[in-house]
Amino acid sequence: MSTLKRALAILDLFSLATPVLTAEEIISKLSYSAPTGYRYIRDLSDLGYLLRMTGGGYKLGPRIIELDHLIIDGDPVLGAARPIMREVVDQVGGDVLLSVIHGLRILNIHHERGPEDLGIAHGRGRAHPLFRGATAKTIIAFLPRKDQRKLYEAHPADVEAAGLGQTQAEFTRRLDEIRVRGSYLGVGEMSPERAGIAVPVFQEDRRIFGALTVTFLATRLNTIAQDKTTALLQAAARRIESLALASRIKEQAPAP
């Protein structure tokens, strides 16, 4: 592991359960030598990624907030997605989420809220369960086959618990069914009272970027037009892809 990766691994130790860690806890959790651990902590603190608190503990620092602000204001995908997601909310109701996969984590990066309080806890920056729900199953279905195999090998029990099969072959078959359908309807998977429809969002090279999901009360399943809603989501996803690509091309164009 490179020096940079070893230093940045410290940031991954922080969570809602452990928002503050002492230097000794950091060094112990990562099995670093004391000189190396203290040097990494000092460097991250100097750069603003860690902030020392009264009493000697450390928490994530203000530089991370600055970077998130830059992403929110400067990301062409988010810039394209926000007004389109608002349109979907206005037409369908419910909440609309844009989510991405990074490594073995699925993260929600934008959340447009509808008229009803659905009690969704997975807002921006919150990790999403890896195999449960329309969002996760849609994203995983469009991953390259080698990445799907890695996920199964790392989490066979979770795959089975999510109803995606008891063997790797069955897991692959279930994902292929979602892929062919081009969308996924999940009912009661994240919460008994909620349902969701998700469609994939692609990068310009057709690799999976993430998923666009509309979530609503499960009691609306009898009244919501599922095919129409899916088509609306798919059209919204294509618009996001097109506008994000146009924005990147504009940024890369040489000045006149």
Automatic annotation (TrEMBL):
Coiled-coil ranges from the UniProt annotation: none
GO biological process: one example: negative regulation of DNA-templated transcription
Protein name per its UniProtKB record: HTH-type transcriptional regulator KipR
GO MF: DNA binding; DNA-binding transcription factor activity
SUPFAM superfamilies: GAF domain-like (SSF55781), Winged helix' DNA-binding domain (SSF46785)
PANTHER family with a match to the protein in the record: HELIX-TURN-HELIX TRANSCRIPTIONAL REGULATOR, ICLR FAMILY, HTH-TYPE TRANSCRIPTIONAL REPRESSOR ALLR
Domain (IclR-ED): residue spans on this chain: 63-246
Keywords: DNA-binding, Transcription, Transcription regulation
Occurrences of domain HTH iclR-type (ranges): 1-62
Transmembrane spans: none
Native organism taxonomy: Bacteria, Pseudomonadati, Pseudomonadota, Betaproteobacteria, Burkholderiales
Cell inner membrane keyword on record: no
InterPro entries per the UniProt record, alphabetical: GAF-like_dom_sf, HTH_MetabolicPath_Reg, Tscrpt_reg_IclR_C, Tscrpt_reg_IclR_N, WH-like_DNA-bd_sf, WH_DNA-bd_sf
One protein family per Pfam: HTH_IclR
